[in-house]
Design a protein that fits this description.
Elements (H helix, E strand, L loop, with lengths): L2 E5 L2 E5 L1 E5 L1 H9 L5 E6 L7 E7 L4 E5 L12 H10 L6 E3 L6
Parallel strand pairs: 3-6, 4-7
Antiparallel strand pairs: 1-2, 4-5, 5-6
């Protein structure tokens, strides 16, 4: 049964959502199985972004975590773009957190 969860404002209908360290995440990017990369702004830390990668064929989503804990890794957008470009990502989607009125 597919996993359908809303994770940081992104609705995933996936078989699994895996938390990966930076090296394992980079391997997934370079093996060309990733069909979409999303940078999602943190609700708690303005202009800091989490990065999600999606493999539509296997219906698997990946999110990068810190090396020593399971907390999600946050990036400044310029550093994230540099990291993704280094790993041959041509384009990625940016989603900002909703502004509370």
């Amino acid at each position: 049964m597919p996993l359908c969860i809303k994770y940081y404002g992104i609705l995933f209908i996936m078989n699994s959502l895996l938390h990966l360290k930076e090296g394992a995440f980079a391997e997934r990017l370079t093996d060309k199985a990733i069909t979409k990369v999303i940078a999602q702004e943190s609700k708690d830390d303005e202009l800091k972004f989490f990065v999600f990668a999606i493999n539509a064929d296997t219906k698997t989503a990946y999110v990068m975590r810190h090396g020593r804990s399971d907390a999600l890794r946050t990036w400044r957008l310029d550093n994230l773009a540099r990291f993704l470009k280094l790993h041959a990502v041509d384009a990625f989607e940016v989603q900002y957190a909703k502004i509370q009125d």
